[in-house]
């Protein structure tokens, strides 16, 4: 790894202890999240005596120095930002409205964000080097054994700093801003409970089928009862008519018998 004055948006190969060297981008100070700024390590310079008191004094001095440098840098940015078009050597013109101040001196640490991992870390200049698109092509086409997770990171780095939207990379990560279709899906998912409340569940549909079958059975039973009632009433009517016919036949027979015997005469 070489030691150089790295600039914002530079694509580098950063090495962290315990991990493989990973493609990353140096994040401009203007875009570093506040929670990441708070984790910036403070360099410690021990005195010749090596006493704790001297070390604490050095830490306090470094902290005050970094605070002054940050305030001074912010003031210079405000003063020079409007003159960036006249002094392009002081700024990296990323877009007409997005400009990053260049580093004039070597820094003790740089904030980088790893590709296709989206984690931040502060790296020393001795632990990283510039990664070009040609370096990425050679690595991807090489026959060496590759970590599968590193392949998309090298593919992204191969696009170069001009092929990556730095603002979207910081804001949304390596895969960029979600599509509008995903927002529509989220809205549909939000409305899904309402639809589910209207739709019958499996149990309710089964119960409904059961109710329908029971209703059909009950209707069938009622129809059978109706049929039975109809049959009984008809039978009763037939029986009644047969009885009437039998009574009339008996009456007719009696009349015939009376006619054969003749009228009874009263004795005088």
From TrEMBL:
<dbReference type="Pfam" id="PF00855">
    <property type="entry name" value="PWWP"/>
</dbReference>
<feature type="region of interest" description="Disordered">
    <location>
        <begin position="42"/>
        <end position="84"/>
    </location>
</feature>
<feature type="compositionally biased region" description="Acidic residues">
    <location>
        <begin position="180"/>
        <end position="192"/>
    </location>
</feature>
<feature type="compositionally biased region" description="Acidic residues">
    <location>
        <begin position="240"/>
        <end position="249"/>
    </location>
</feature>
<protein>
    <submittedName>
        <fullName>ISWI one complex protein 4</fullName>
    </submittedName>
</protein>
<feature type="compositionally biased region" description="Basic and acidic residues">
    <location>
        <begin position="250"/>
        <end position="260"/>
    </location>
</feature>
<feature type="region of interest" description="Disordered">
    <location>
        <begin position="180"/>
        <end position="268"/>
    </location>
</feature>
<feature type="compositionally biased region" description="Acidic residues">
    <location>
        <begin position="72"/>
        <end position="84"/>
    </location>
</feature>
<feature type="domain" description="PWWP">
    <location>
        <begin position="6"/>
        <end position="117"/>
    </location>
</feature>
<dbReference type="InterPro" id="IPR035503">
    <property type="entry name" value="IOC4-like_PWWP"/>
</dbReference>
<dbReference type="InterPro" id="IPR000313">
    <property type="entry name" value="PWWP_dom"/>
</dbReference>
């Amino acid at each position: 790894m070489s030691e150089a004055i790295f600039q914002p948006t530079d694509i580098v190969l950063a090495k962290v202890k315990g991990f493989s060297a990973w493609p990353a981008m140096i994040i401009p100070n203007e875009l570093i999240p506040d929670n990441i700024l708070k984790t910036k390590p403070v360099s410690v310079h021990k005195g010749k005596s090596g006493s704790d008191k001297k070390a604490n004094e050095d830490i306090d001095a470094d902290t005050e120095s970094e605070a002054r440098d940050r305030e001074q840098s912010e003031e210079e940015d405000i003063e020079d930002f409007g003159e960036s078009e006249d002094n392009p050597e002081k700024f990296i013109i990323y877009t007409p409205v997005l400009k990053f101040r260049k580093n004039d001196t070597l820094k003790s640490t740089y904030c980088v964000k790893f590709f296709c991992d989206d984690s931040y870390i502060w790296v020393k200049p001795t632990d990283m080097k510039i990664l070009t698109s040609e370096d990425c092509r050679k690595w991807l086409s090489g026959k060496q054994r590759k970590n599968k997770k590193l392949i998309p990171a090298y593919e992204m780095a191969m696009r170069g700093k001009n092929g990556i939207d730095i603002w979207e990379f910081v804001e949304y990560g390596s895969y960029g801003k979600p599509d509008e279709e995903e927002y529509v899906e989220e809205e549909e998912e939000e409305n899904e409970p309402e639809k589910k409340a209207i739709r019958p569940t499996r149990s309710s549909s089964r119960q409904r089928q059961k109710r329908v079958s029971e209703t059909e059975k009950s209707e069938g039973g009622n129809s059978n009862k109706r049929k039975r009632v109809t049959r009984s009433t008809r039978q009763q009517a037939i029986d009644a008519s047969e009885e009437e016919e039998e009574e009339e036949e008996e009456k007719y027979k009696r009349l015939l018998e009376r006619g054969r015997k003749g009228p009874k005469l009263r004795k005088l």
